[in-house]
Design goal:
This protein is α/β, with parallel strands linked by helices and about 400 residues long. The protein folds into two domains: about 5-175, Rossmann fold; about 185-405, Uncharacterised protein family UPF0261, NC domain (Rossmann fold, 3-Layer(aba) Sandwich), CATH 3.40.50.12030. The protein has 14 helices and 14 strands. It has helices at about 15-25, 50-55, 60-65, 70-90, 100-115, 135, 155-175, 195-205, 220-230, 245-250, 265, 310-325, 355-370, 385-405, and strands spanning about 5-10, 30-35, 95-100, 120-125, 140-145, 185-190, 210-215, 235-240, 270-275, 280-285, 300, 305-310, 335-340, 375-380. Strands 7-6-8-9-13-14 form a six-stranded parallel sheet, sandwiched between helices. Strand 4 (about 120-125), helix 6 and strand 5 form a beta-alpha-beta unit. Helix 4 (about 70-90) packs parallel to helix 5. It is elongated, with a radius of gyration of 24 Å. Pfam families: UPF0261, UPF0261_C. It comes from Fusibacter paucivorans. This is Tm-1-like ATP-binding domain-containing protein.
Length: about 400
């Protein structure tokens, strides 16, 4: 029989959790309860708050004595992040559900993020309708808005809690039995302005027996890809769109953090990298672009996205960053330069056409890349030319075949 873990503050929200627990058990599933509150629970849990605290060498009594809610949340969330994946590995549960406000969400989502992708994870939260990136991270947590506060049972909350119980039950009961042929798994990065390139490369790879996961280079996409690489899921990386570094450098809204472009190198995974969309920094609607950039070359990509052309100086900085990251690689690495343009709008008569800016990028890369570690390949093509895309795909196939032998 499948088991749903229910994790939360059974001291302050015991009534709500007892309601959800009864619903899930009424559907023929087992429950496994984990208490994350500081004080005595309203019902006996399977895992006590003392066990959660001790997972990180702390005492629940000492935590309670401090009377510091922020401190308690920090320690117990760390305990959950350590303990919950261990309990999952022991076969204690098959899915996990929680309810809470911002504090309760912060308590349990770090633990959910530590569980493997595919394990059902549902967080009913008062903050689910806002920016949930710091709760979800690169995991597959489902965030459900609670609409009203998670405080008592009423005509609204009981409907939301029931929907959550039925949703997690459905996730764990109805398992997809369809088997998918196991193929070598390749991760690729794409942006709207590099879509033709990645589509050509994806088809080329799939026609030759590879499975391609495409990640939209919007910050979260890059982080997700790096996380899967670190997790050992990926066998080859076609990182053609490294634009997230523009936002990290200049202050755009789609950055993937300072560790972008490191995972494959650290893991020794074969990688073919390019400079796709390094001509642009991303902002929101036009009127949200910071005032210091008012005189820059701005392009309204759509009503919610404004692009800004990178300068010569910024391209020199980007070239140094790309070279520095790839010089760290412990596995086979190819860096490909499309000398006729790095994005759909970096082409003659297009908004971001910039031979001078591109030259600064290419020259800096040539100067800084370590040729003993990175194979540098230059092509007199635009990044979206089919021959460039298929050449990049074939280079990756060659690297993967070399590693296999």
């Amino acid at each position: 029989m499948k088991t749903v873990a229910i994790a939360g503050t059974f001291d302050s929200k015991g009534q709500e959790y007892a309601y959800v627990k009864a619903l899930i058990e009424g559907l023929g599933l087992k429950t496994y309860t984990i208490h994350t509150g500081v004080f005595e629970p309203t019902f006996e849990p399977d895992v006590s708050n003392a066990a959660v605290a001790s997972a990180v060498g702390e005492s629940i009594e000492a935590i309670a004595a401090k009377k510091d809610r922020a401190y308690a949340t920090e320690i117990l969330s760390k305990g959950m992040a350590k303990l919950v994946p261990e309990l999952y590995k022991e076969g204690k549960f098959d899915a996990i559900l929680s309810l809470g406000g911002s504090g309760g969400t912060a308590l349990v989502t770090p633990a959910m993020r530590e569980l493997p992708i595919g394990v059902p994870k549902l967080m009913v939260s008062t903050v689910a309708s806002g920016n949930t990136a710091h709760y979800v991270g690169t995991s597959d947590i489902v965030m459900m808005p609670s609409v009203v506060d998670v405080s008592g049972l009423n005509s609204i909350s009981t409907k939301i809690f029931a929907n959550a119980a039925f949703a997690i039950a459905g996730m764990v009961k109805f398992e997809n039995k369809e088997t998918v042929e196991k193929k070598p798994l390749v991760a690729a990065t794409m942006f709207g302005v590099t879509t033709p390139c990645v589509e050509f490369a994806r088809k080329y790879l799939e026609d030759r027996g590879y499975e391609v996961l495409t990640f939209h280079a919007t910050g979260t996409g890059g982080k997700s890809m790096e996380s899967l690489i670190e997790g050992g899921f990926i066998e080859g990386v076609l990182d053609l769109t490294t634009t997230e570094w523009c936002d990290e450098l200049v202050g755009g809204v789609l950055n993937a953090g300072p560790n972008r472009l490191e995972a494959a190198g650290k893991k020794g995974i074969p990688q073919v990298v390019s400079v796709g969309a390094l001509d642009m920094v991303n902002f929101g609607p036009y009127d949200t672009v910071p005032k210091q950039f008012a005189d820059r070359n701005l392009y309204k990509h759509n009503p919610t996205v404004t692009l800004m052309r990178t300068t010569v100086t910024e391209n020199e900085q980007l070239g140094k960053i790309i070279a520095e990251k790839l010089n760290m690689a412990s596995g086979d690495t190819v860096l490909m330069l499309p000398l006729k343009g790095v994005s759909m709008i970096d082409a003659p008569e297009q908004a971001f056409y910039g031979p001078e800016e591109d030259k600064a990028l290419f020259d800096t890369i040539r100067k800084n890349v370590n040729r003993d570690i990175v194979t540098l390949e230059e092509m007199q093509n635009h990044i979206n030319d089919q021959v460039f895309a298929e050449t990049a795909a074939q280079r990756l196939i060659d690297l993967m075949a070399k590693q296999a032998h």
